[in-house]
Amino acid sequence: MASWLNGKRTSPIGVDIGSRSVKLLQLGGDGSTVHEAARWDLPSDSPDKPTERDAHVIEAVRRAREGRKFRGRDAVFCLGAEDLFVQNIRVPTADGAELDKLVRAEAAGRLPFKSDEAEIRYIEAADVRQGDTFRREVILLACHKPALERILAVAAAASLRPVAIDVEPAALLRCYARQFRRDDDHQRRVMFVNLGAARTKVVIARGSDAMFVKYVDAGGRHLDEAVAKHLDMSLDDAAALRRHNGDRRADQRDPEIARSIAEAVRGVLDRLANELSLCLRYFSVTFRGQHVAQTVLGGGEASEALAEWLAARLDVPCELGNPLRTFEKNALSGPQTQWDVAAGLALRNAN
Q1: Do the domain assignments include residue 99?
Q2: What is the pLDDT of residue 329?
Q3: Measured in whole angstroms, how far is the alpha carbon of residue 173 from the centre of its chain?
Q4: Residue 95 within a domain
Q5: What integer pLDDT is reported at residue 30 of this predicted model?
Q6: Where are the alpha helices (DSSP H) in the chain?
Q7: How many helices (H) and strands (E) does the chain have?
Q8: Is the Cβ–Cβ distance between 318 and 340 less than 8 Å?
Q9: Can you tell me the distance from the alpha carbon of 150 to that of 296, in angstroms, rounded to the nearest whole number?
């Protein structure tokens, strides 16, 4: 497919379908500006049945485009955690067709669906020592083919033309890798943490090369549930209280409410920190002598306070991500961190 930089005025629309909202972002033709972006929230009581949920997603995509300046119908969609099987695996060292055969054979015994019904991709991380031999560390990425068919159906119903279907971890890394300017940046090991509504995405990378990927079952919804239980209120009221408190400046927050929320969510955040610690430990043991130099926190639930807290808990410097830092006209409403996946999708095929 020809690059959209060659004579095109805009990029494809990056369509980030989350559990709580749909975010659309389109770049200018040279990839240096945000041409348009929009977010549309999904119903808080979104149904569990895929067909009913897809109907809400289709409506959200349509409403997000209404009255906006999005150009064309080309779009890049992505597979989320509910449709994507991710696991770091090890196979004998090999290349080309032989490596592909080994990965698929290993995947067959791990996938939650039949391998002949799966689309399988993988990322080669590095050769690692296991005992007295070396093996190839590989990030396995697979999905059930019906999940792809559902995305194509959603795109068609929303009058969009999917030019690619990506995965969230790749989009996340692509977004931040764009900001690497120095040679040192391409060699540093960084852990990217995207704290979303339902789950947290974790990608440890050397420069723009992913070396470890994992989904952690902790997100904004878990924080809301913890507040609802602690304060004996409905889930919707708990979500509204937590967001209202978070939207205020620290010096304008009610101390009693802030204290109650902090007490309520402590268990969820402790669990998240423990999971991230395990990710760092796996990385340091697997890739001996390599250590993560920094954590970048993104996603709709990210905050400066949480970045500071994680830095202290993990003993690794942590900064709040700014996925739109290198783009012009990036004053979008809401937390800038929520646009990292959508921006990464829009950047696909940029080179």
Answers
A1: yes
A2: 65
A3: 9
A4: yes
A5: 84
A6: 50-65, 96-108, 145-157, 168-177, 220-231, 235-247, 255-286, 304-314, 340-346
A7: 9, 13
A8: no
A9: 32
Residue located via tokens 């929230």: 41
Q: Strand order in 34-41's β-sheet?
A: 34-41, 21-27, 13-17, 74-79, 161-167
Asked whether residue 249 is assigned to any structural domain, the reply reads: no
Q: Copy the structure tokens of residue 226.
A: 């913890």
* Placement of tokens 């997000």 in the chain: 64
Euclidean distance between CA atoms 85 and 214, whole angstroms = 10
List the CATH number of the domain containing 133.
3.30.1490.300
| pLDDT average per 10 residues of sequence, the chain (351 residues) | 54 96 94 93 81 94 96 96 95 96 96 94 94 94 96 97 96 91 80 96 95 96 96 94 73 80 96 98 92 96 95 97 84 86 91 53
pLDDT of residue 46: 67
> Could you tell me if residue 275 is inside a domain?
no
How many domains, in total, are found in the chain?
1
Cα gap 211→286, rounded to integer Å: 10
- β-bridge partners, 36: 26
Query: Residue 351 has what pLDDT?
Result: 53
Question: Distance between CA atoms of 138 and 278, rounded to whole angstroms?
Answer: 18
Task: List all residues 6 or more positions away from 83 whose beta carbon is below 8 Å from its beta carbon.
Answer: 143, 144, 147
Residue with structure tokens 């602690």?
230
Expressed as residue numbers, the domain containing 111 is 83-144
